[in-house]
Amino acid sequence: MGLRRRVSTAIGLAQSTIGALAAIFAFILYYDFSGIQTVLNVPQNDVLFYMLILIVLGFVSIISGLFLVNEQ
Amino acid sequence: MIGIGGAISAGVFVMLGHAVTLAGTTVIIALILCGIINLFTMCSYAELGAALPKAGGEYTFSKAAFGGFFSFFTGWFEWISNMFFAALSAVGFAYMIPYILPMEMPLTSVAVIAITMIAIFAAINTRGVKEAGTAETAMILILLAILVAYILSGISTSPMQSLQVYAPEGLFGVIKATSYIFVVYLGAEAVAVAQAEIKNPSKTIPRAILISAAALIAFYTLIAYVTLRMVPPEKLSGQSAPIIFAAEHALGKLGTVLLVIAGTIAALSSLNTSIMAQSRVAYAMSRDGYFPKAFSKIHSKFSTPHVAVIIGSVFTAVLAATGVINFVGYATDFGFIIGFALVNLSLIKLRRERPLIDRPFKTPLYPFMPIAGVVTSLFLLIFIDVGVLSLGIILCLLAVFAYYARMVGYLRFRIAFGGISLGLGFFTTMLTFSVLSGAISFNGVSPTTSSIILFILIFTGITEIAAGILNVTAKSAASS
Predict the structure, then answer these.
(1) Whether complex ipTM tops 0.85
(2) Higher pLDDT, B131 or B205
(3) Measured between CB atoms, does A64 come within 8 Å of chain B?
(4) Looking at the structure, do residues B326 and B462 belong to the same domain, yes or no?
(5) How far apart are CA B448 and CA B386, in angstroms?
(6) CATH code, domain carrying B102
(7) Tens digits of residue pLDDT in B426-456
(8) What's the pLDDT at B480?
(9) Residue A60: its chain B contacts at CB < 8 A?
(10) The Cα angle at residue A53 between residues B432 and A60, in degrees rounded to 5
(11) How many domains does chain B have?
(12) Does B286 touch chain A if contact means CB atoms closer than 8 Å?
């Protein structure tokens, strides 16, 4: 396995993990598990906005990361 | 029997509480509306199930009607919906545990029990289950007998008084409850899908589907009616296992035990069926080239698609880990509603483009019925929880990208995503500098939490930029 391939796999895994965690966190924030909105001082009105940003970040990161992991 | 038994899952045992919160006693109207909407699509299932003699359901129908992206999209949602349904069944089972064992049930315990059950059934499905026809029929009979006994004893023991119409959110609440509780009707289409094992399917299927769809409406309406007569809606509202709660309230210990048995049978059989169904869909899609090859690997010893079972079960466990019935309930609805709409569209397309196919059963009132099926199903989507709707939109986008990335323009997609990654990386880096320079501050957040957020921002920025560069330069790396 070449250096580029190894770096791609590592970065791809990290990016996909970030994406998956961002997407999961979006729902944790929306459903306010463990009072996370209070911990992070997120106003109720802004929750959907933050959720949208996290979902976009998550979506792009998962796809982009998978491209790197599956590099041919 | 398959239709009625297949449709009774954990849903009816655990979802009535929130539905009553939304619609009060008019939840009965919501259940009837669900039944009618379900009936529109069941007619399409009946026609397509009899006309296309391959087992496989929605994916097979849309493959014959559309092929390409639409069949991928249908299979994708069939796969995902079955995983959500499995999660719903596992979480539903977990919520019944406190009625058997004297224990507190915080969200973490619900998640742990649900994940354990998923792991057990994943192992069973990896080893392979031989058809337990007689035992399965006996279980369905026990389940139906308990529910009939519940209805009869509920009517005879609760005081004879008419239900007061109580709709806390008016018509809007009824429609929201319809959208939420639609999941309880899922599974009745098993009659259409299992037509290969039915004698004289052209006559039996339409009859079975219409009878089971009508019987389910009557059955659920009676269950809701009896439950609301035994326990007022204010007490029922928000209960995690409302039918068992009502039995405990009005029928005593024996009633509770029997209802827990019925709930357990319903939850575990639907968990098993949905884990098996998701793996078979993933296997078929992999065989057709839509999913990676690994999904169609067959276990050398057990002859099961073990990779598809395990991957699907891991996703299911993640969904079940939320432990939130409303979330998985709405999410199951979303996937199946999309599937229902596509089945109706497949019927319309096949009627127009392949009119000469032998159709032992024809949907009555064509094209009204399938169009009504599409419109009413999609109408329900509007009232689904915003969080789940966002998730559904992501899943739709993922389906589009997964399909086109796999089928066409892999490199172009990759470079585009590399560019977006770079943009996100630079944005995150700028955000980090703004925080470090004090231009943006975390008001009301503890210093420790601020440090964690800052670390995550730095790590995300670096990773996104590195990933962006690697994806954008993929073409030159591939050609060199």
Answers:
(1) yes
(2) B205
(3) yes
(4) no
(5) 32
(6) 1.20.1740.10
(7) 888 888 888 887 777 777 778 888 888 888 9
(8) 44
(9) 417, 420-421, 424
(10) 95
(11) 2
(12) no
